[in-house]
């Protein structure tokens, strides 16, 4: 699966995403009352909303937003993102949930949430440290909201490749997707699952989970098909999964 900005509007095409719609979010999250309060307190519209109910409403809203981003990570197929131009705030959340991140040389990144008075809450603070492996760098960019460019993103490991422009980045992503798609889907989907599991567990837990997973997966006929094609020096073909 490939993600890239493809807006028909010229200005929007210059960016992957500028992040959250602050006006819409503020209206949704910080209104004086929520729908539940309105239904249950029709005669008390002037009273302050109950803090516990307001917190429950906000928690459900945030959790729903988090689930939207996590759906990318949970996708069984590998997800590749090609970023360009301004890739701010939500762009970091979304791309951090992807499996492979590529970008154009003009890409400008920032974890912008502190500039609007928030801690990033839909994935960046949980995923970015595990991607780049430099906790100090993550704290710096998250606490300052400073911009960083494509070269720095590649240096710390946030993106794996940098291309000269958007068109080349998208073409590179498509080529990479085609290469992955030529492999056994059993092997590809299993590899993604095992990598994600191992990232969040101990080495021993990862080894045990891999053994259980592969006790079923190695029984696929894709193994013999791949080995035979190597001997016969031909490209293997695999059934869809």
Automatic annotation (TrEMBL):
Query: Positions of the region Disordered?
Result: 1-53
* GO biological process, alphabetically ordered: fatty acid beta-oxidation
Q: Does the keyword Lipid metabolism apply?
A: yes
Q: Under which pathway is this protein filed? A: Lipid metabolism; fatty acid beta-oxidation
Top-level taxon = Eukaryota
* Alphabetical UniProt keywords: Fatty acid metabolism, Isomerase, Lipid metabolism
Give the CDD domains listed for this entry: crotonase-like
One GO cellular component term, please give it: mitochondrion
For whether the record's keyword set contains Lipoprotein, the answer is: no
Gene3D superfamilies listed in its UniProt record:
2-enoyl-CoA Hydratase, Chain A, domain 1, Lyase 2-enoyl-coa Hydratase, Chain A, domain 2
Q: Name the Gene Ontology molecular function terms of this record.
A: delta(3,5)-delta(2,4)-dienoyl-CoA isomerase activity
List compositional bias (Acidic residues) regions by residue number.
31-40
Spell out the PANTHER family in the cross-references: DELTA(3,5)-DELTA(2,4)-DIENOYL-COA ISOMERASE, MITOCHONDRIAL (PTHR43149:SF1), ENOYL-COA HYDRATASE (PTHR43149)
Q: Which family does it belong to?
A: Belongs to the enoyl-CoA hydratase/isomerase family.
User: Can you say what this protein is called?
Assistant: Enoyl-CoA hydratase/isomerase family protein
State the organism of origin: Aspergillus ochraceoroseus
Ranked from the top, the taxonomy reads: Eukaryota, Fungi, Dikarya, Ascomycota, Pezizomycotina
């Amino acid at each position: 699966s490939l993600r890239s900005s493809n807006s028909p509007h010229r200005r929007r095409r210059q960016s992957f995403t500028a992040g959250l719609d602050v006006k819409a979010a503020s209206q949704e999250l910080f209104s004086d009352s929520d729908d539940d309060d309105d239904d249950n307190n029709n005669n008390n519209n002037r009273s302050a909303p109950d803090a516990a109910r307001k917190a429950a409403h906000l928690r459900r809203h945030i959790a729903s937003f988090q689930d939207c981003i996590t759906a990318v990570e949970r996708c069984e197929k590998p997800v590749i993102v090609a970023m360009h131009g301004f890739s701010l705030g939500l762009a970091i959340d979304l791309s951090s949930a992807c499996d492979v991140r590529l970008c154009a040389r003009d890409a400008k990144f920032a974890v912008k949430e502190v500039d609007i008075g928030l801690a990033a809450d839909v994935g960046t603070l949980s995923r970015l440290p595990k991607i780049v492996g430099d906790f100090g760098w993550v704290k710096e960019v998250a606490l300052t909201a400073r911009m960083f460019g494509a070269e720095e993103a590649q240096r710390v490991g946030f993106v794996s490749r940098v291309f000269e422009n958007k068109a080349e980045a998208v073409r590179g992503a498509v080529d990479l997707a085609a290469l992955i798609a030529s492999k056994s889907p059993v092997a590809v989907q299993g590899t993604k699952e095992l990598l994600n599991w191992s990232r969040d567990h101990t080495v021993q837990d990862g080894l045990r989970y891999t053994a259980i997973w592969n006790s079923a997966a190695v029984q696929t006929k894709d193994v013999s098909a791949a080995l035979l094609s190597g001997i016969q020096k031909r490209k293997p073909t695999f059934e869809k999964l």
